[in-house]
């Protein structure tokens, strides 16, 4: 009996993400931010000036949960809120120098964890993995294109090895 490739894909993606997150948390224990705060700063550093609502959507967390994180991060001088110049009611989020200093060592650690995770994969296998994950993300994104595409054949674990 062969494994259901769709269940296997889900399990592999979820387990890989969980183990990567765990390893990154282990590597960042000495950094003065929680893993949630590190994720917020990492995403915000690439999207400076975005709204809290947009950041909550990007991180796939509830807006009120993000608000509580941001409140604590503002008090810790990790994030700042600024008035949106185009909307008096809205605030934009920005990283601070303190959070950017803490983020830099984390990026190096993350790179080492990612290299460890991909140890044993050849360059073509790494390229194929990234291409496949980008395709998976594009297929599942909410841009409406996913429904228009024909289904993709997913190999079983035996076919991948």
Strand and helix map with partners:
Blueprint: H1 5-27, H2 35-45, H3 52-59, H4 63-75, E1 79-84, E2 87-95, H5 97-117, H6 123-140, H7 157-160
Antiparallel strand pairs: 1-2
Q: Radius of gyration, Cα only, in angstroms?
A: 19 Å
Helix and strand succession? HHHHEEHHH
- What percent of the residues sit in helical stretches (DSSP H or I)? 55-70%
The helix count comes to: 7
Strand order of the largest sheet: 1-2
The total strand number stands at 2
In angstroms, what separates the terminal alpha carbons? 17 Å
Sketch the major β-sheet: 2 strands, antiparallel
% residues in beta strands? 5-15%
What brief labels describe this structure?
single chain; 9% strand; 161 residues; two-stranded antiparallel sheet; disordered C terminus; globular; mainly alpha
Fold and architecture overview:
It is a single chain. The protein has helices spanning about 5-25, 35-45, 50-60, 65-75, 95-115, 125-140, 155-160; strands at about 80-85, 85-95. The radius of gyration is 19 Å and the shape is globular. It has about 160 residues and is mostly helical. It has a two-stranded antiparallel sheet. Helix 1 (about 5-25) packs across helix 5. The model is unreliable at about 150-160 (pLDDT under 50).
Summarize the model shown.
This protein is mainly alpha-helical and 161 residues long. Helix content is 61%, strand content 9%.
């Amino acid at each position: 009996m062969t494994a259901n490739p769709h269940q296997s894909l889900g399990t592999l993606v979820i387990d890989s993400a969980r183990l990567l997150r765990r390893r990154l948390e282990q590597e960042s224990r000495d950094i003065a931010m929680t893993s949630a705060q590190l994720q917020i700063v990492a995403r915000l550093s690439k999207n400076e000036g975005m709204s809290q609502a947009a950041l909550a959507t990007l991180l796939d967390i509830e807006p009120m949960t993000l608000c509580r994180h941001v409140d604590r991060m503002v008090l810790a001088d990790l994030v700042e809120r600024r008035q949106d110049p185009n909307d008096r009611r809205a605030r934009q989020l920005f990283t601070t120098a303190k959070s950017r200093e803490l983020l830099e060592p984390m990026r190096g650690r993350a790179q080492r964890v990612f290299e460890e995770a991909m140890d044993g994969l050849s360059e073509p296998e790494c390229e194929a993995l990234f291409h496949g994950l980008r395709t998976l993300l594009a297929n599942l994104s909410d841009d409406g294109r996913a429904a228009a595409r024909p289904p993709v054949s997913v190999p079983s674990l035996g076919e991948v090895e």
